[in-house]
């Protein structure tokens, strides 16, 4: 291996190394349960509040002291800008679980096995009629790895929602859940109408006189409970050649009969006209299958339609009175009174509609953004619609009163009053619609992406029967409830495109043959589709063939994967005492991803230097650790070790190779050293820090954020 000046090495490093503060160590929980950052769990211990059924809500929510309820975990996580990791078990809710924007929830952990994560660790959220509620989400929020159950509806027309998402400009992301809503509530039964009341009979006409002045009085009109009274009967004609009076008009214009003419004998009064029957109402129209959604994101079932009312029957007309007898050689008499008209029958009252039923909704989304991906959604049945009420039939009209009939061989008899009209029948109410059973219900201005979910659907509820009566027949039944995997319009939501980065590595040159330098290639978030990226090695101060074996090819990430490794054989040689040497493993041509840090730097430490250092001192070897925290704003700590007392410089450079800070420039004793570095004078970005002695050079990168 050839020796190279430090400045040339740094120049090469700065020209060829691409850095990004977006490259993980952040470890997002994923369904391959990958420990990307090496902290022992799937996820990031430092970015989580922990929840377990064995916990206590007075605890701080750490791995050793988890809280007991998920809602408490959300509260603590929101205050600390963290997520919530939930251990296996059943979490019973007495109110909806309120999701907070930006606080993601991850289940399938096991607190009894050091928070390992697996498919066997079922985490159940057992809620009321709305189990999980996400309102006005403004930062992307994940809910992953739970079994979410909502209770059956207990109130007429109520719905059951496993997850309800209402409003928000950012995405609620549901992945890898089992979602089980309860059954919808049945609709209410409509009220039956009542039969109309009958009209009363008209009064009978009074008797006349064969020989004298006492004419018959007309009968009174029959009473009607709904005001449709019959007409009064006409009085008989007075003694002599006098006509009887005409019968009175029934309420709402039905004519009475004409009075009989006077003479010998007197004429008979005309019968009253019958009252017209009331018109019948109509049955209610069929109910709509689906209801509406309130601004609060609540499904409101429709109501069937009530029957319409009929009209009352009209009162019968009164009959005319008989004419009086008048002649030259006889004893004159007075006529008989006419009978009163019968009262009109009243209309029946309407049958009201049955109400529609509540639904069973796996995920209910209103005016919101959502991604629903790879869930198992098992809905229950929608409720049954309520039956419509029967419309009441109309009451009968009263009979007309009889006319007076005294001495009809000489004086005129009174006519018979008209019969009151029959009241109209009222229409019956239609049945309510059956409740829906829908896996994903999309409403309003929602933007939803739903991929590869598995559905097991309940059935839509049965529509209620329509009311009936003998006059208007049977009203329409309610439609059966909708049963569908997805209702509503799905939209295109761009998938999250991960950034790819590759770690730097350091390896001691092997004494014989070769050792593999293991590069970790990471994604910033789990792959949502297959991702590929090309790779190849490039010489630096180390050369392919003599110092390492060149590799090239294509690396593939399958769905949900976050981390892969690439191995480069580092070869042994017989040259000792040389400085550290480097080569790079370069990424290019990503498909379905971007590259945030596409150059992995491998530093090969000379074997002989390492052997000499370890043999000459019990105090260790040269080491330069990664600064912590990183990325950072303000102050960070850098730790390094020396095998023996040395003149040391520790300097920071920007990516243009310019020195921006000298942290250490002095002689230091052997052992570990801790120094602080303040970035307040630097702009955000990537920098290189370099530890140098007369026989060693170690370099790492740091990331400043503002």
Summarize the structure.
With 706 residues, the chain is mainly beta. The chain has three helices and 40 strands. The strands form nine sheets. Strands 1, 2, 5, 6, 9, 12, 17 and 20 form an eight-stranded mixed sheet that branches.
List the helices and strands and how they pair.
Elements: H1 6-16, E1 48-51, H2 70-80, E2 83-87, E3 89-92, E4 97-99, E5 105-110, E6 116-117, E7 123-126, E8 130-137, E9 141-144, E10 147-149, E11 160-168, E12 171-175, E13 178-180, E14 292-293, E15 299-300, E16 360-366, E17 369-373, E18 376-378, E19 437-443, E20 447-451, E21 454-456, E22 468-469, E23 473-474, E24 483-487, E25 499-502, E26 505-508, E27 514-523, E28 531-539, E29 552-557, E30 563-571, E31 581-591, E32 594-597, E33 599-605, H3 607-616, E34 623-624, E35 635-642, E36 646-653, E37 659-668, E38 671-678, E39 685-692, E40 697-704
Parallel strand pairs: 1-2, 2-5, 3-7, 4-8, 5-9, 7-10, 8-11, 9-12, 10-13, 11-16, 12-17, 13-18, 16-19, 17-20, 18-21, 19-24, 25-32, 26-33
Antiparallel strand pairs: 5-6, 14-15, 22-23, 25-27, 27-30, 28-29, 28-31, 31-33, 34-35, 35-38, 36-37, 36-39, 39-40
Structure commentary:
Mean pLDDT is 88; it is low at 1-22 and 608-619. 57% of the residues are buried. The protein is rod-shaped and about 170 Å long. 5% of the residues lie in helices and 31% in strands. The chain is built from 3 helices and 40 strands. The two termini are 41 Å apart.
Throw out a few tags for this protein:
706 residues; eight-stranded mixed sheet; six-stranded parallel sheet; disordered N terminus
């Amino acid at each position: 291996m050839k020796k190279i000046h430090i400045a040339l090495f740094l120049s090469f490093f700065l020209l060829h190394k691409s850095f990004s503060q977006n490259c993980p160590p952040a470890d997002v929980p994923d369904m391959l349960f990958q420990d990307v950052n090496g902290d022992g769990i799937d996820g990031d211990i430092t970015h989580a509040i922990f929840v377990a059924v064995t916990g206590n809500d007075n605890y701080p929510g750490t791995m050793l002291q988890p809280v007991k309820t998920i809602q408490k975990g959300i509260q603590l996580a929101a205050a600390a800008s963290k997520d919530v990791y939930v251990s296996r078990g059943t979490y019973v809710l007495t109110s909806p679980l309120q999701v907070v924007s930006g606080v993601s929830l991850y289940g399938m952990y096991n607190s009894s096995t050091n928070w390992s994560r697996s498919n066997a660790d079922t985490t159940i959220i057992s809620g009321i009629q709305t189990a999980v509620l996400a309102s006005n989400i403004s930062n992307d929020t994940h809910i992953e790895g739970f079994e979410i159950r909502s209770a059956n509806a207990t109130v007429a027309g109520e719905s059951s929602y496993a997850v309800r998402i209402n409003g928000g400009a950012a995405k609620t992301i549901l992945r890898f859940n089992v979602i089980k809503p309860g059954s919808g509530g049945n609709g209410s039964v409509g009220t039956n109408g009542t039969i109309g009341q009958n009209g009363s009979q008209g009064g009978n006409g009074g008797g006349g006189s064969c020989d004298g002045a006492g004419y018959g009085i007309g009968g009174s009109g029959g009473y009607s409970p709904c005001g449709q009274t019959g007409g009064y009967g006409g009085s008989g004609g007075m003694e002599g050649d006098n006509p009887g009076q005409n019968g009175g008009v029934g309420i709402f214009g039905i004519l009475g009969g004409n009075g009989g003419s006077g003479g010998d004998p007197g004429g008979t009064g005309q019968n009253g006209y019958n009252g017209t029957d009331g018109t019948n109402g109509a049955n209610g129209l069929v109910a709509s299958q689906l209801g509406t959604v309130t601004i609060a994101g609540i499904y409101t079932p429709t109501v069937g339609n009530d029957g319409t009312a009929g009209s009352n029957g009209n009162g019968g007309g009164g009959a005319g009175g008989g004419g009086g007898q008048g002649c030259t050689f006889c004893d004159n008499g007075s006529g008989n009174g006419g009978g009163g008209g019968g009262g009109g029958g009243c209309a029946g009252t309407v049958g009201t509609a049955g109400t529609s039923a509540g639904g069973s909704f796996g995920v209910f989304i209103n005016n919101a953004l959502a991604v629903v991906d790879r869930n198992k959604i098992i809905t229950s049945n929608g409720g049954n619609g309520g039956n419509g009420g029967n419309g009441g039939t109309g009451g009968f009209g009263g009979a007309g009163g009889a006319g007076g009939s005294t001495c009809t061989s000489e004086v005129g008899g009174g006519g018979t009053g008209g019969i009151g009209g029959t009241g109209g029948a009222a229409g019956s109410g239609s049945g309510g619609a059956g409740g829906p059973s829908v896996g994903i219900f999309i409403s309003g201005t929602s933007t939803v992406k739903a991929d590869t979910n598995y559905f097991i659907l309940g059935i839509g509820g049965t529509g209620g029967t329509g009311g009936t009566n003998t006059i208007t027949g049977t009203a329409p039944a309610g439609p059966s409830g909708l049963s569908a995997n997805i209702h509503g319009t799905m939209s295109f939501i761009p998938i999250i495109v991960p950034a790819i980065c590759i770690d730097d590595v350091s390896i001691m040159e092997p004494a014989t043959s070769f050792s593999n330098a293991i590069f970790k290639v990471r994604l910033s978030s789990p792959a949502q589709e297959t991702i590929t990226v090309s790779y190849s090695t490039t010489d630096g101060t180390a050369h392919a063939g003599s110092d390492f074996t060149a590799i090239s090819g294509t690396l593939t990430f399958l769905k949900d994967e976050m981390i892969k490794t690439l191995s480069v054989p580092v070869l042994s040689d017989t040259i000792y005492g040389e400085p550290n040497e480097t080569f790079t493993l370069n990424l290019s041509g990503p498909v379905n991803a971007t590259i945030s840090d596409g150059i992995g730097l491998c530093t090969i430490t000379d074997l002989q230097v390492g052997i000499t250092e370890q043999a000459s001192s019990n105090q260790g070897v040269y080491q330069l650790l990664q600064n912590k925290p990183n990325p950072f704003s303000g102050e960070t700590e850098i730790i390094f070790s020396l095998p023996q007392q040395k003149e040391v410089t520790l300097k920071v450079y920007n990516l243009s190779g310019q020195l921006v800070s000298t942290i250490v420039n002095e002689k230091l004793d052997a052992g570990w050293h801790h120094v602080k570095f303040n970035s307040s004078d630097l702009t955000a970005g990537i920098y290189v820090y370099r530890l140098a002695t007369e026989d060693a050079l170690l370099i790492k990168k740091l990331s400043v954020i503002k």
